[in-house]
Design goal:
Blueprint (H helix, E strand, L loop, with lengths): L3 E4 L7 H12 L3 E3 H10 L3 H12 L5 H12 L8 E4 L5 H13 L8 E5 L2 H9 L1 E4 L5 E3 L18 E2 L6 H15 L1 H8 L3 E5 L4 H13 L2
Parallel strand pairs: 1-3, 2-3, 4-8
Antiparallel strand pairs: 5-6, 5-7
Bound molecules: adenosine monophosphate.
Adenosine monophosphate binds next to helix 2 and helix 3.
């Protein structure tokens, strides 16, 4: 089964949720660029301070910074057997850089790209109701996937919070940025024959089953 996997889809499509489940099932690390940025922000590293303004506006962090961060992450030994990328690449230069780094690191190439699609109005509803776990980034939704106890993560008991970029204004911008900068990657991967289209407007388990069966054919 495919091991170098890129999750594609607009913000709110459920990439993170699915990536977490897939990473456990396939035993490959889940590498989320957004999560790494937020960790750096929390720890106030140089990278975090640099990314802060872009993230809070719903814009993309510049390619050079993002590419260097991912290169460093996927060079680590835990990615030797594969990786599940969530939120990267998001631009054409990032996709090209990913091809280059996988080949430099002798990791072959991207072999599967599940692309989760969801109507825009559903995305806004999902993102603005989303609550994220402070400790490990588990995600819930106040209406569609509530935690057992309000404000508390089911998995590790840590506090659930609303990401600053999950407000209506920023969410709208993030969707606009996706359409302009990331959507072209669908063609990029389709031309390579690695794109797997998945309908995201169904239950979490149904989306997961659809991705797993698409991956089993790769
Ligand atoms: P996410 O958690 O994937 O929705 O990412 C949150 C924010 O982090 C995005 O809105 C961007 O500001 C930044 N970010 C995450 N991944 C990337 C990327 N591949 N390129 C540029 N910026 C990114």
């Amino acid at each position: 089964m495919a091991k170098q996997i890129v999750m594609l889809g607009p913000p709110g499509a459920g990439k993170g949720t699915q990536a977490k489940m897939l990473s456990e099932k396939l035993s490959v690390p889940h590498v989320s660029s957004g999560y790494i940025f937020r960790e750096n922000l929390r720890e106030q590293t140089e990278l975090g301070k640099h990314a802060d303004v872009y993230i809070n506006r719903g814009e993309l962090v510049p390619d050079d910074v993002t590419i260097a961060m991912i290169r460093e992450r996927i060079s680590r030994p835990d990615c030797d057997e594969g990786v599940l990328l969530d939120g990267f690449p998001r631009t054409a230069p990032q996709a090209e850089a990913l091809d280059e780094m996988l080949s430099d690191l002798n990791k072959g190439q991207v072999d599967a790209v599940p692309c989760i699609t969801v109507p825009d109005e559903v995305l806004i509803e999902r993102l603005t109701g989303r609550r994220t776990c402070r400790a490990q980034g588990h995600v819930f939704h106040i209406a569609f996937n509530p935690p057992k106890e309000a404000g508390k993560c089911d998995y590790d008991g840590s506090e659930l919070y609303q990401r600053e970029d999950d407000t209506v204004e920023t969410v709208t911008n993030r969707i606009r940025v996706y359409l302009k900068q990331t959507q072209p990657l669908i063609d990029y991967y389709q031309q390579r024959g690695v794109l797997l289209e998945v309908a995201g407007d169904q239950s979490i388990d149904a989306v997961f089953d659809e991705i797993m069966s698409a991956l089993s054919g790769v």
